[in-house]
């Protein structure tokens, strides 16, 4: 950084600053407009976007459904944060922090609202008795790592990702600062996974679901196009773990939900039934001319 910034005595909001996401960041809470959320046919109504935070929860739902737990059926509605949909009155009623994901459980009376992805993972694990070990020490370990990723991911996303990929200018100091921290976190994971198949030991859990979209994504080189920069191939144990999780059917489906970017076959903007995945694939194949459209 060549220029020295001297903070003013009183900070003032410059709405035009902030890079790619300047139009959705603001220093005040609350709704910007009135708009009700849609409600589908299932007890669980998810309002989200296919970001690393968002897909934690869709992975959990799809893993529960993979086990045959039909009570975990859900509707997933796309919330376009680029258009400020997270600031609607309906969304703020569910999540006063205006961040995706937001979830309503209509199977309770009154309905239960849930915000923060880790809260949703724990809620669903406890509700259905799955993906949270019952053994005392393994359960504590799963919760340790789930809380670890909640505290660590902002360095990867809001810190490194912002300054490396999204900031209006490239500045050496913040990029180096956050790159160092992300590499330290990857090393934390790599050392732990050297002696453990999953984060909680030998059981796949909510800790893996919460961590995989962020650190598994970085290990696979799909976040911020920074794989070479951070030499992610060197974290062999994280690579093994990420590959193993990426092959799970529930993970594959969960990563597609509410995803409006990437290759067309990886996108499922909304999810209201298990058949949506099959229909989505067929629609994309027709669009590419691989199969004829039905008459």
Question: What can you tell me about this protein's structure?
Answer:
By secondary structure, the chain is α+β, with helices and mostly antiparallel strands. It has ten helices and four strands, in the order βαβαββαααααααα. Strands 2-1-3-4 form a four-stranded mixed sheet, with helices on one face. Helix 5 (172-193) packs across helix 8 (236-246). The longest helix has 31 residues, at 136-166.
Mean pLDDT: 93
Number of strands: 4
Low-pLDDT ranges: none
Give Rg in angstroms.
Answer: 20 Å
Q: What is the general shape?
A: globular
User: Could you describe the largest sheet, including whether it forms a barrel?
Assistant: 4 strands, mixed
By DSSP (H or I, 4+ residues per run), the number of helices equals 10
CATH class of the domain at 136-253: Mainly Alpha
Helix content: 40-55%
Per CATH, which architecture of the domain at 136-253? Answer: Up-down Bundle
Strand percentage: 5-15%
- SS content category: alpha+beta
Q: Order of strands across the biggest sheet?
A: 2-1-3-4
Q: What's the helix-strand series?
A: EHEHEEHHHHHHHH
The CATH topology label of the domain at 136-253 is: Glutathione S-transferase Yfyf (Class Pi), Chain A, domain 2
Distance between the termini: 61 Å
